[in-house]
From TrEMBL:
Its main location: plastid. It is found in: Plastid, Chloroplast. One of its GO terms (biological process) is glutathione biosynthetic process. This is Glutamate--cysteine ligase. InterPro entries: GCL_bact_plant (IPR035434), GCS2 (IPR006336), Gln_synth/guanido_kin_cat_dom (IPR014746). The lineage of its organism: Eukaryota, Viridiplantae, Streptophyta, Embryophyta, Tracheophyta. It catalyses: L-cysteine + L-glutamate + ATP = gamma-L-glutamyl-L-cysteine + ADP + phosphate + H(+).
Length: 476
């Protein structure tokens, strides 16, 4: 049985399983008898060739596009002639509520257990080959080099900074999300442990001199219409700083305190402001698919799709007379990095990476808030009087002061308590017993101590201000 064919027998966790059991199982490296499967010679991994955004199967001669977690394949080479084509692209993501799914992505820093140095490309190749051979993943090749793995609608890829990323399948429940992430981590540990390497559950590399991109776990969620997209975009964008505070987990840089609870979040404020940030126009009455298209077309992101007129008129300097394709448009959208990003789904980008239960708490937080109409309306009513300046202030201040950031006569902690309650209520109304995944966030707001502040306490009181200990504390 290949892992991609395995699903939960129901929408619920196995009887008697608690969050403590879940945490213990991953800390002990337990695979529960269903995750780490023995190799069977009759099942050989396929070799897939990666050509841009396409993946070809040499065995079946099939071709698929690297589609998003929550969407199906699109026609990769369809020319885009008018703005209406781009509007149609976004509109094609609209789904009825019964088809809404949950997609997760997360990255991990790899390091050598003995030296704490970043792992090298050769080690990553060995890891990918090992996972493919033992757990039946298909290899994605670029020439002779393996650059990723694919299994069903999941993929594992090598990122530019040497990070390993899981892009999960579109799933119906948070229980399935937990088992997908847990399975992936068990598989990685099964191979990596024998190689003497580990992976770090943190938002920003804490020690190394070379600057990799910060790590962002992302949640991808669906919408039913353009209006539904607008409502969800506004609610989630306004609350991204709240998520940043709750999940803050990057207080170290170059082995020392960096003065921030989320250095990852702060780092994005130093990048191109045209392609990042809080997008004030999302709260304008005129906002919709077309307005986001205007924004994206106005962003120069280093690709040849930077000038609006040239983009749509087939006047690309390198390819005169050739019109951009759907692949070009998707690549262009990927080069834009606001706190919430629109594709054919909404992508939440405000949190730091962290341990297993925090990775599961992130989709639980957003699903409970924006997949439930009552909770979504509560959020929209709460943020209705938040000004552009207040939203930007939260974005700027929260990376340093977290839950203790002053806001509207109180603190961000007060807002966080309110929205976690709404998220929990929203999950309970789904009737799938998923609210258990918010327990770790309830602990954060009850104690007022974020993951970053826990690390800083250990750094100052237990570790003798030696950040090397974080590698053991936060190793998957």
């Amino acid at each position: 049985m290949a892992l991609s064919s395995w699903t939960l027998p129901s929408h619920f966790m196995p009887s008697g399983l608690t969050t403590n059991d879940l945490e213990v199982s991953i800390k002990k490296g337990s695979c529960g008898g269903v995750i780490c499967l023995p190799r069977r010679n009759s099942l050989e991994p396929r070799i897939l060739q990666n050509h841009g955004a396409q993946v070809k199967s040499n065995r079946r001669h099939s071709q698929v596009v690297a589609a998003s977690i929550t969407e199906g394949a699109v026609i990769p080479n369809m020319p885009l002639i008018t703005k209406e084509d781009l509007v149609a692209y976004f509109a094609s993501g609209c789904k009825p509520k019964q088809e809404w799914r949950i997609g997760t992505e997360h990255e991990k820093f790899g390091f050598e257990l003995g030296t704490l140095r970043p792992i090298r490309y050769g080690q990553i190749v060995e890891l990918l080959n090992g996972i493919a051979e033992r757990f039946y993943w298909d290899k994605i090749m670029e020439g002779d080099n393996v650059i990723g793995l694919k299994q069903g609608k999941q993929s594992v890829t090598l990122e530019p900074g040497g990070q390993l990323e899981l892009s999960g399948a579109p799933l119906e429940t948070l229980h399935q999300t937990y088992f997908e992430i847990n399975s992936h981590l068990c598989q990685v540990k099964a191979i990596a442990g024998k190689m003497g390497i580990g992976f770090l559950a943190i938002g920003f590399q804490p020690k190394w001199e070379d600057k990799d991109m910060p790590l962002i776990p992302m949640v991808n969620l669906d919408f039913s219409s353009e209006l539904d997209m607008v409502r969800k975009f506004r609610a989630s964008l306004a609350l991204q700083p709240i998520a940043t505070a709750l999940f803050a987990n990057s207080p170290f840089t170059k082995g020392k305190q960096n003065g921030y609870l989320s250095m990852r979040s702060h780092t994005w404020t130093d990048l191109d402001k045209n392609r990042t940030g809080m997008l004030p126009f999302v709260f304008d009455d005129s906002f919709g698919f077309e307005r986001y298209i205007d924004y994206a077309l106005g962003c120069s992101n280093g690709l040849y799709l930077s000038a609006k007129e040239d983009f749509m008129a087939g006047k690309l300097p390198a390819l005169p007379g050739q019109f951009p394709t759907m692949n070009d448009w998707e690549n262009h959208l990927t080069g834009v990095y606001p706190e919430v990003r629109l594709k054919r789904y909404l992508e939440m980008r405000g949190a730091d990476s962290g341990p297993l239960m925090m990775l599961c708490a992130l989709p639980a937080f957003w699903v409970g808030l924006i997949y439930d109409e009552v909770s979504l309306q509560n959020v929209l009513e709460m943020i209705a009087d938040w000004t552009t300046e207040e939203r930007q202030m939260l974005r700027d201040k929260v990376p340093m002061t977290g839950l203790n950031t002053p806001f509207q006569g109180g603190f961000v902690k007060d807002v966080a308590e309110r929205v976690i309650k709404w998220a929990k209520d929203g999950l309970e109304r789904r009737g799938l017993k998923e609210a258990v995944y918010l327990n770790v966030l309830e602990e954060v707001v009850t104690t007022g101590v974020t993951p970053a502040e826990k690390l800083l306490k250990m750094y100052n009181e237990k570790w003798g201000q030696n950040a090397d200990s974080v590698f053991e504390e936060l190793r998957y």
